[in-house]
Every structure is written in C-alpha cells, then in structure tokens.
Amino acid sequence: MGRDEAISEALDATSTRLYFSMGHVSNDPAELMKGGPANCIGYSALCASLLVAQLERSGMDDRYTVEHVIGKLYIGRWSLHTMFHGPFWKDHDIVRITDRRNGQRVYVDPALFDAVGIGRVTGP
Question: Do the beta carbons of residue 121 and residue 112 sit within 8 Å?
C-alpha cells in the first residue's frame, strides 16, 4: 500500500464512522473509532490516527509525518469563516502529511470529504 492508498482508506474509514455535529462531542480518536458525532477537530484527529496506523502497518511511518493542524477554509480567496459568527467557525482542522525525503506536503480534509467528497485541499 502506498501513501495515496493509505490516505484514501483513512478518509473512507473516517467518513464511514463519523457524522458532523456542532454539539458537544469527543475529539479523542480512540473514542471516535467506535463512530458517532464529531466536528472538524474529531474528524481530523481520527483520520490522522488511522493514517498513522496504516503507514506503520505498511512500513512507511519512517518516511511520512502525519499532523493534525489548524487552518482556515477558503474557496479561492474567499474565507468561508466570514459567513458564520461565533467561536465554532473561527478556524478549521485538517491533516498534513509530509514526506521526510523531499518535504512534499499533502493536505487532507476529512470533514469536507464526508460532506462533499473533496478530500485533498491545498495548504501553506
């Protein structure tokens, strides 16, 4: 299994287990493994955890770093965060995968993948 397959499996498994909620939810990947409600923090935490495990099983964990990171959600130059008010919408959590050999980064958004099927996003 390569990196892209591991990412696809982690996104699919996260989407299968979770459904989006703005309520009080867990962000603990061990708890979310059972399934249930989550926000973008929980989606990213579970996806990162699943991806790390898949990379370890495939012997690729020495090559890739997987990080749950906080950013903003844009369509072009337009910030989606300007549409909403309140602290819940101030930022957005995604997963960054960095290739230690060449520094190449891939960004995935498990919550967006679950909502509309877009898994890969761009980042800084």
Answer: yes
Assign 1 a pLDDT band (cuts: 50, 70, 90): confident
Q: What is the pLDDT of residues 87-97, one digit of tens each?
A: 645 678 999 99
The type of residue at 122 is T
Domain residue limits, the chain: 3-121
- Phi then psi dihedrals of residue 21, to 5 deg: -145, 145
CATH class, domain 3-121, is alpha beta
Q: Over the stretch 41-57, which tens digit does the pLDDT of each residue have?
A: 999 999 999 999 999 99
Rounded Cα–Cα distance for residues 65 and 32 (Å): 22
- Number of alpha helices (DSSP H) and beta strands (DSSP E) in the chain: 4, 8
- Count Cβ neighbours within 10 Å for each residue of 57-87 and write b for 16 or more, e otherwise: eeeeeeebebebeeeebeeeeeeeeeeeeee
* pLDDT mean over 2-24: 96
Q: Which residue in 47, 67, 61, 49 sits closest to 109, CA to CA?
A: 47
